[in-house]
Design brief:
- 85% of the residues lie in helices and 0% in strands.
- By secondary structure, it is mainly α.
- It is elongated.
Length: 207
């Protein structure tokens, strides 16, 4: 407010601030649209999935949800007595993660078809399957408790996703409005600096 009162043209300051705020909201809309499209592509593209996985909090939400879906669907196929490779393929597709699909199609399924257990193949892909999950999978696979263990992991990943989403919901608005305030202040200070620069030139002409 003091800046507006001291400015030569407070109306222009308000206009610039309003336009800046509008630009920020438009930018946010564009980011949301692009982010949604990238999320869809990440379901089949491991490179995009890796990129989104590096985004703070968002990456944690995506990974937990993907592993929860994988665990749930693979467990259903096990209980139904279906073939392991078919269960892996369906679970990977249900995970909606390009990294998990790549890990399953390039590693786990070929390993199963050659007579290898699933767990060690998952452990070779820490980008897609967390080390703790892979170790638990191997132990459960060897002890014959894979169905109950997958249920436990599914619940744990769902809880992890909820926790990450709570953190995202708590921090995202603060970062967004903090960015708006910084941009508006920058615009105001820049305009005030131009005004004082004009006064300085006038004083020089008077001298």
């Amino acid at each position: 407010v003091p800046l507006l009162i001291g400015a030569a043209n407070p109306g222009r300051v308000l206009l610039v601030s309003g336009l800046t705020l509008l630009a920020v909201y438009l930018l946010l809309f564009v980011v949301i649209v692009i982010g949604g499209r990238l999320a869809v592509k990440a379901e089949s593209d491991p490179k995009i999935d890796r990129m989104l996985g590096r985004v703070p909090l968002v990456g944690s939400v995506r990974q937990n949800l993907s592993l929860a879906r994988f665990s749930s669907v693979f467990r259903m196929h096990l209980l139904a007595g279906e073939r392991i490779d078919e269960g892996l393929r369906s679970a990977a597709l249900a995970s909606r993660s390009g990294r998990i699909r790549e890990a399953v199609e390039a590693g786990a399924i070929p390993g199963v078809e050659s007579g290898q257990p699933v767990g060690p193949e998952l452990a070779k892909r820490p980008e897609a399957f967390t080390p703790a999950f892979a170790r638990g999978f191997i132990t459960a696979e060897n002890s014959g408790t894979l169905d109950s263990d997958l249920l436990r992991w599914s619940e744990r990943f769902h809880e992890g996703a909820r926790s990450a989403m709570d953190k995202l919901g708590a921090h995202a608005p603060k970062y967004f409005y903090g960015l708006i305030v910084l941009i508006v202040l920058w615009q105001v200070f820049r305009m005030v600096a131009k005004i004082f620069s004009g006064y300085d030139q006038i004083f020089k002409l008077i001298d």
